Amino acid sequence: MKLTQTHIEELYKFTKKHYVEYYDVQTELVDHLANDIETICLANPKLSFDDARDTSFKKFGIFGFMDVVEQKQSQMTKKYFKIILNFAKEWFKLPKIILTALLFIGFYQLQNTPNAYTIYSTVFGFIFLAQVILTIINARKLKKEFKITKRKWLFKNIINVQGLIYAAFISIYSFQYLFPNNTKDFLLMGDFRKAFSAFFITFLVIFGYITLVVIPKKAEELLEETYPEYKLI
């Protein structure tokens, strides 16, 4: 059996019915199902399309497409943080390394002032709040876009929503567990811990800049690199 466009459309509906909401994941599954159905029908020509489809679907086990979705989610999340890492590496090359060094020295020297804890807290709070606000704004934009295109893209969702949630969680976790929680203990830190604190807050400032400014600006470019078909929309 050679599958028709109608069959392909039915497979898209089938994956959506089984809780696969992202178009890119649906496309991968439809491609797999289509090839498998043709193979199954080649071995048993009398089998109907629906029966061949159900036979193929059973191969995914009792959890259906869930494992595939989770694997794709993990893969795209790793891709997102790899992109962040690649952008972060640029801050350790000229000329940005000069600004990085100045940030580190500034935060290190700042720890000797009475207001150091307040300033550190403000920086963390600003990054965290900005990530939360941008997450809400982007989530609303994606919702409006879905109403028009009827398509959701997993990597686009990670760039605009999930990635920012992860970033916000990392920021607040770092502040709560890696730094003293009061002004007195902050001022009493030893030289090594001061250097570590200065390094880490410098990293988080760069991390926040990349997630809040750099990646959103390059989002369309990154999406087109990930999905060649995205250019056609």
TrEMBL record:
The chain crosses the membrane at residues 91-111, 117-137, 158-175, 195-215. The lineage of its organism: Bacteria, Pseudomonadati, Bacteroidota, Flavobacteriia, Flavobacteriales. This is Uncharacterized protein. Keywords: Membrane, Transmembrane, Transmembrane helix. It comes from Polaribacter atrinae.
